[in-house]
Amino acid sequence: MTEDFLHYIWRFQALKPGPWKGTQGEVFKVIHPGYPNFDSGPDFQEARISIDGQIWVGSVEIHISSKDWYQHKHQFDPAYNNVVLHVVYDSNVEVVNAQGNLIPELKLASLFDEQLYWRFEQKLNKSAKLACESSFPTSDRLHKQQMLDRCASLRLEERSTYIQKIYEELHGDWDGLVYRLVARALGLKVNSEPMEMLARVLPFSLWQKYLDRPQQRMALFLGMSGILPSKGDAEVTKWAQEFQYLAHKHQLQAMDGSMWKYARMRPVSFPDRRIAQLASIAPEILKWFRLIRNGKWSEINWPSLDSYWTYHYRLNKVSARKLSAKWSEDRINILKINALIPVLFFYARKVGNYNLQEKALALLEEIPPEDNSISRSYEQLGLTIGSAYDSQACITWYEYYCRPKKCLTCTLGNELLNT
To answer: What integer is the mean pLDDT of 275-289?
Structure first.
């Protein structure tokens, strides 16, 4: 038995007709089961329950076992003081809230058709990537859109949780926050951690001193990354000499260059070029928060790499063909999706500007969809992926619902259960 299944049967009241008797002999009748709570706190809110003829309005908490109440430490959490009913599959201990009050409890075992659960479990165990592959194409289009909307918002909300930690670490420095997130986004999934580490060990308060000295700035970024050789071609030798001087001047300790990954990557995404791109746009990043906050996206400048990188994927290794030093539209969109729009959404939440939150979500709809294995899985089942809003939502849909088989918390789960 799973809590998700108990949530489902409680939410849709897929139970034998009441009234029912509680573990203490009370008589329960459900007037309204409450509304699902997807944030912290009790599972259902604003429930209306008749207990021995008296109507109680409050929250409902659901567990497999009564003991889970204590394992989750709800007895110490004032947020659970308004729970009017504890719904469990197996009742084995009385539960009290933080005020010491005994909470009425309803045992669900024998109150529903357990064959429904086992049939559902069999479907999940037999399923491939998506449990609802057979029913997805014919599922209600509105339900699919509801999941896309829910997951698009959830993705930005989850990122806001991560961004909040960086924001606190930087003591509310918005420019530093943008810099950190842009660096991480430039590393893509493979090198996101070392790119963010580079932004930590090389804060903008240091490289800001070299805004008008691109040679020294590039030397700082390449040197601190740990990938800059001590000698090589003429340009590399210059950067190495500059970094040696700057490292002594500022008492700098470079990263371990072995943490950067190159395997199974397109050369255009090699760390050398990504670090160089970060160095080239560093002065512009100081303007970006003000621009995106004020909706002036068209004023963002994307400076090209210097001539060295038109023939180099990696330091000291000449490319057989000429490379573009300009920012591609795809690369710009990646930074917007993974750094700039999340910062805008976080800022909007921080200041309580709901219109700006909606604007951040709408900006995703203006960006072409990403092409990845997850969005392709949904497309193959007939879902239209028209923008980054959809492709980003699909990633969260898969990671939060489909992969962990949390089908009963998905709007399509009801159809799966009854097919």
So the answer is: 95
